[in-house]
Write a structure and sequence with these properties.
Structural class: alpha+beta
CATH superfamily of the largest domain: DNA polymerase, Y-family, little finger domain
Distance between the termini: 63 Å
Strand content: 15-25%
CATH architecture of the largest domain: 2-Layer Sandwich
Oligomer: single chain
Strand order of the largest sheet: 5-6-1-7-8
Order of helices and strands: EHEEHHEHEEHEHEHHHHEHEEHEEHHEE
Number of helices: 14
Largest sheet: 5 strands, mixed
CATH topology of the largest domain: Dna Ligase, domain 1
CATH class of the largest domain: Alpha Beta
Number of strands: 15
């Protein structure tokens, strides 16, 4: 089969951005953390740090034990987004980017011009050379060339850092046999358990399984698609977007109280609601969770008629908070988060038959609030539940979501929130 897909995975992206920005960090073990606190964890690590056993999710305490020389750097999402955009422009000058898979992964289609092996290899080397020259030597990448996205992505993982791997018909499955099943896209922990239950524990056994076997394991047509993708068939691997909108925040010591953690939840909810409106969606479910110092966790979820109204979502949050078990009021909160789900595109939303006037009034109010926040900076106008914590819960980057600084009002060059020109008081929660 022809080489159809070029996959690019930028190595240790957040850490590499920091090293590119600061020459003193180059070649050193560094860990990128969301907040500078002993109770925080690494969200990225440089390769010298990885070689000591540090990985994503390693606590700061454990990281210091594994690598006493590690240098911790507080995350600067605005800087990383700026690098992401520069890299996209550079790649686009070499070959069209067909899909942005995450902030550090992109997919390019080779079929239009670059399908022959020599041309595909040439454009891959061109991308690497241009990144080195125009962005910097720290921004290395692993590139995979293969008949489809699944195999190209697997190829990027086979040689790190700064790799370039080609998977052609004669390489499949021989070059993949040493991998674990969970290394494959579409095989998470639960699917791996299902495969094990069917007696499939190795990559060799996965390839020997019939199309019917995999359909049975996956419980439908996706198993047949997986069978085809493993053999290089050009079956698209969907990149689902806008399934949920959520935010979480590891609380710094000064916010580890019941009242302050609740205020941060309000702050997160207001950010999520603003994002919801910016992507033109409504939500039909709100989930909230809190983890505590003693290991306990609390979560709750309420399903409702879909809305993008911050006031209605606030009522739901208050309801859930009020029905927590009283014993949790004395526990020390460490992390909080909210998730809006059951998303519905605006074109599919139907106004409430008995509440259309109120909904229209709230919509105009909320769009006015969004405009003010985008003009003067997020937190310039906010609802009272977030009082006292509007400088907390800054922009974060999830693996599959790239925030827009223009919406969250982050100065990408200095990674700080843009301050309003004058103080604007919080909106009081009210009923019409």
């Amino acid at each position: 089969m022809p080489l159809r897909t070029l996959a690019i995975d930028f190595n240790s992206f957040f850490a590499s951005c920091e090293q590119q920005e600061n020459a003193a960090l180059r070649g050193k073990p560094i860990g990128v953390v969301p907040v500078m606190a002993e109770t925080s964890c690494c969200i990225a690590a440089s390769y010298p740090a990885k070689r000591t056993g540090i990985k994503v999710g390693t606590s700061v305490r454990d990281a210091k034990k594994l690598c006493p020389d590690i240098q911790l750097v507080e995350a600067r999402p605005g800087v990383y987004i700026n690098y992401h955009r520069r890299l996209l422009e550079l790649i686009e000058s070499c070959i069209h980017v067909t899909e942005v898979r995450s902030i550090d992964e992109v997919e390019c289609d080779l079929t239009a011009t670059f399908a022959p092996r020599d041309k595909a290899l040439r454009v891959a080397k061109q991308i690497k050379a241009k990144v080195y020259k125009e962005v910097g030597p720290c921004m290395t990448s692993s590139i995979g060339l293969a008949p489809n996205w699944l195999l190209a992505k697997m190829a990027t993982d086979m040689q790190k850092p700064d790799g370039l791997v080609i998977l052609e018909d004669e390489d499949i499955p021989q070059k993949l046999l040493d991998l674990d099943l969970t290394d494959f896209l579409g095989i998470g922990e639960r699917m791996n358990e299902r495969l094990i239950q069917r007696g499939i524990t190795t990559v060799e056994q996965l390839y020997k399984a019939s199309k019917r076997d995999l359909r049975s394991v996956w419980g439908g047509v996706e198993g047949e698609r997986m069978y085809g993708r493993l053999r290089g068939e050009n079956i698209p691997t969907p990149h689902e977007k806008n399934k949920t909108v959520g935010h979480s925040h590891v609380l710094p010591p000064q916010l580890r109280t019941e009242a302050k953690s609740f205020a941060v939840l309000h702050r997160l909810l207001q950010k999520a609601a603003m994002r919801l409106r910016s992507i033109g969606h409504y939500a039909g479910s709100l989930s909230v969770y809190v983890s505590f110092r003693d290991g306990r966790k609390w979560s709750d979820e309420i399903v409702f008629n879909e809305t993008q109204d911050t006031l209605k979502l606030t009522e739901v949050l208050n309801l859930m908070w009020g029905r927590r078990h009283p014993c949790l009021s004395k526990a020390v909160p460490m992390q909080v988060g909210i998730v809006l789900s059951r998303l519905l595109p605006m074109r599919s939303h139907t106004l409430d038959l008995f509440d259309q006037n109120k909904e229209d009034g709230h919509e105009r109010l909320l769009h006015a609030v969004d405009t003010l926040n985008q003009t003067f900076g997020t937190g310039s106008v906010y609802f009272g539940g977030a009082f006292g914590v509007t400088d907390n819960a800054p922009m974060r980057i999830a693996f599959t979501r790239i925030p827009e600084p223009e919406i969250e009002q982050i100065d990408s060059s200095k990674n700080r929130r843009i301050k309003p020109k004058k103080e604007i008081v919080p909106l009081r929660e009210y009923e019409q």
